[in-house]
Design a protein that fits this description.
Ubiquitin-like (UB roll); about 35% helix; binds ligand ANZ; 32 strands; about 725 residues; binds zinc ion; four-stranded parallel beta sheet; Isoleucyl-tRNA Synthetase, domain 2; alpha+beta
């Protein structure tokens, strides 16, 4: 009697074995194979992997493994976005050193990532907080400075009084700090800015060439917010309008203000020569357009609301003017320059020196990196000074030009600068002479496929596109755009369908799930939970996860049925085609369903051929890399299943084979299922019952009745 399936016996064993043999190490060139770069957003070292990390890294690993078996030389790197406020806040709270905190978290998380059985190439790891990395962040910053793309200016900054630091516009959510939710104040401060606005048009126009979801492109366009309009002067008040043709309908002027009030002034409408009152109001933003508008209540909703509220005149019918009759054509953008100064310790030091005589000077390239010094007191001061200002022996230096007493810049860089180029470093992570050689870049860039979170649509994705374009103009990279294809993944929710949170007690701990069910089950269940490239929210269903474990147990048992040379009655061509198509379009869920159907069909047979079983294992290998490797070895193979070629199918056998069945639960259509015409009603029913959409309606109960109606509909009654 063969041993029962126990992931504990095999998963660690294979993880260590893969490490030793180095099968996931990706050379820059592999004879006869095309390079492919599959990227996932690197991890923030918060100290513990949660289900979200698993979902972010383990599901793309399925795609990566599939592409490898399809004959590509795939780079799938991992690293850590290791600077930033949480490290520092945790350090302040628990009296720890942010560096030690961060690096011990990284060590722990590496182990956890290991338990995923993912095929990361760790030899390319990057850690943004290591001097080998931030040396190049500093070097790149100085390039921006040299080109006039980085500048220092007194700018109204978003100041979080709780984090005691400046935030970028993108980090302010409805007037509150994205991190700590404190209300953000406006404060005029000397800030380092990067001129992303110079690239606004290209950032919009070049979206067209990208294979990105429409929703992400739209979000970026809206964020950049390009408007063609006109500037019109009402005496000394200049307004920005996108509808200069409505000038005859103007009944008031509004300038940005803190409360709604009449200023007592009147100005002249250049079209009618009539006087209109000037108001102040909150609905006009001070930092958009000219900070002043012409009020056209008949055509603008907010102006109408305002006119009604304060009893201002409304002109319903008026003559339309020509676009440039009374003003000058202009283009305005919502996008602002990117404020990159942070008055915090745990970040990349901005490598410049302030000299009273010579001004702002770059630290000479030969002196990079400017090492972040060790300090004792990480608390920022209330006056907005970085804690680094207290490190006197570090701050005080000689001016590189005149040799007089000078001071280092004490602000550090926004971590979004660190993450704007990490994908380039993966291509050449050990290079000590360059941030990444052009030769190595040519091997890997642009990224073929980039998977990440929807929260990065207007921050990281916009910043890094801009960064790359600027580097392209400096002839430091070969491509105009960094990522050919992008997708945003969905979210895993708690079993109650709510966002996982400690206070709700609905948090799923992946380590525990791996302990209970094994990594292969957790990976396969995550694939099964829903299509990966749709921004859905999928509840974690512990019973469905157990269902996936049973499925793997059935695969394990199938081995006993394998007979050399015996022919199976199950035709796998359809399954091969289905699984291939589904993985390549990231519909991992239906790929798993198809595999479940195949296993059920095999189960009913007395014996199966070794060849069919091997095909099944190869199809399952990307999802469940450990169990398939173990079974593969049991079949007598010496080399890994993960270096085998993906099974091929005979397209002739597929003709008209697929059909789509609608699934009804208690009379309502709840989903559909694509099946082979060759499948029996029993197989079709079983496949329907394990779909997550159906499981949701069954709620753990056995259905009262399941019928396949005239080969078109599966009807389930609960
Ligand atoms: C007159 C008018 C008539 C307008 C009409 C619109 C419709 P976007 O597309 O977002 O650029 N506006 C201009 N500056 C503003 C500010 N600082 N705060 C709030 N609103 C401002 O919108 C431009 C329009 O928004 C401008 O055109 C102006 O109102 C308003 F039937 O001028 B319009
Ligand atoms: Zn000087």
């Amino acid at each position: 009697m063969a041993k029962d399936y126990d992931p504990k016996d095999i998963e660690e064993k294979w993880q260590d074995s893969w490490d030793k043999s180095g099968i996931y190490h990706t050379p820059d060139k592999l004879e006869g194979k095309e390079n492919e770069y599959i990227l996932v957003e690197f991890a923030y070292p918060s100290g513990n992997l949660h289900v979200g990390h698993w979902y972010a890294f383990a599901v793309p690993d399925i795609y990566v493994r599939y592409r490898r078996m399809m004959g590509k030389n795939v780079m799938y790197p991992m690293g850590f976005d290791a600077f930033g406020l949480p490290a520092e806040n945790a350090a302040i709270k628990n009296k720890l050193n942010p560096r030690e905190w961060t690096f011990s978290n990284i060590n722990y998380m590496r182990q956890q990532l290991h338990s995923m059985g993912a095929s990361f190439d760790w030899s390319r790891e990057v850690i943004t907080a290591s001097p080998e990395y931030y040396k190049w962040t500093q070097w790149l910053f100085l390039k921006f400075l040299e080109k006039g793309l980085a500048y220092r200016a007194e700018t109204p900054a978003n100041w979080c009084p709780s984090c005691k630091t400046v935030l970028a516009n993108e980090q302010v959510v409805a007037g509150h700090c994205e991190r700590c939710r404190t209300e953000v104040e406006k404060k005029n401060m000397m800030q380092w800015n990067i001129k992303i606005t110079d690239y606004a048009d290209r950032l919009i126009n070049d979206l067209e060439s990208l294979d990105w979801p429409k929703a992400i492109k739209e979000a970026q366009k809206n964020w950049i917010g390009k408007s063609e309009g006109a500037l019109i002067k009402f005496d000394d008040i200049e307004v920005f309008t996108t509808r200069p043709d409505t000038i005859y309908g103007v009944t008031f002027i509004v300038v940005a203000g803190k409360e709604d009030k009449f200023t007592g002034r009147y100005v002249t409408n250049p079209a009618t020569k009539e006087k209109v009152p000037v108001w102040e109001a909150e609905y006009v933003m001070s930092d958009y357009g000219t900070g002043a508008i012409m009020g056209v209540p008949a055509d603008d909703e907010r102006d109408m609301e305002f006119a009604k509220k304060y009893d201002l005149p409304i002109i319903e019918n008026y003559t339309k003017a020509g676009f440039e009759d009374y003003g000058e054509k202009v283009t305005k953008y919502k996008l602002r320059d990117w404020g990159v100064s942070r008055q915090r310790y745990w970040g990349c030091p901005i490598p410049v020196i302030h000299c009273a005589k010579c001004g702002i000077l770059p630290v000479p390239a030969s002196e990079l990196p400017v090492i972040l010094p060790e300090i004792d007191d990480y608390l920022p001061s209330d006056d907005g000074q970085s804690p680094l200002a207290k490190a006197k022996s570090w701050v005080n230096v000689k001016c590189p030009k005149c040799g007089e007493e000078a001071k280092r810049e004490t602000d550090t860089l926004d971590t979004f600068v660190d993450s704007s180029w990490y994908f380039l470093r993966y291509a050449d992570s050990k290079n000590e002479q360059e941030f990444a050689s052009k030769e190595k870049q040519r091997k890997w860039m642009p990224v073929n496929f980039y998977s990440g979170g929807a929260e990065h649509t207007t921050m990281h994705l916009l910043y890094s596109r801009f960064f790359h374009k600027a580097l392209f103009d400096m002839n430091l990279v070969n491509e105009n755009e960094p990522y050919s294809k992008r997708m945003n993944r969905g979210l895993i929710m708690g079993p109650d369908g709510q966002k996982m949170s400690k206070s709700r007690g609905n948090v799923i701990d992946p380590d525990k799930e791996v302990g209970r069910l094994g990594a292969d089950t957790v990976r396969t269940y995550m694939a099964f939970i829903g299509p990966y490239n749709e921004v859905g929210a999928y509840p974690w269903n512990p019973d469905a996860a157990v269902g996936v474990r049973r499925f793997l147990e059935r695969v394990w048992k199938l081995k006993e049925k394998v007979k050399e040379g015996e022919q199976s009655g199950v035709i796998l061509d359809f399954i091969i085609e289905k699984v291939s198509k589904d993985i390549s379009t990231l519909k991992m869920n239906t790929a798993v369903s198809a595999l479940m159907v195949a296993v059920n069909s095999f189960n009913k047979l007395q014996s199966i051929s070794k060849e069919s079983f091997e095909t099944l294992l190869k199809l399952l290998a990307p999802f469940a890399p450990h169990i398939t490797e173990e079974l593969w070895e049991m079949l007598g193979h010496k080399d890994s299943i993960h270096v085998q070629n993906w099974p091929t199918y005979d397209p002739k056998k597929l003709l008209n084979d697929e059909m789509i069945l609608a699934i009804q639960v208690n009379g309502k259509v709840r989903g559909n299922l694509s099946v082979s015409r060759r499948q029996s009603d029993e197989e079709v029913k079983r496949a329907a019952l394990i779909l997550p959409e159906v499981q949701k309606w069954l709620d753990g109960k056995e259905p009262k009745k399941v019928i396949v109606v005239s080969g078109r509909i599966i009807s389930i009654v609960t």
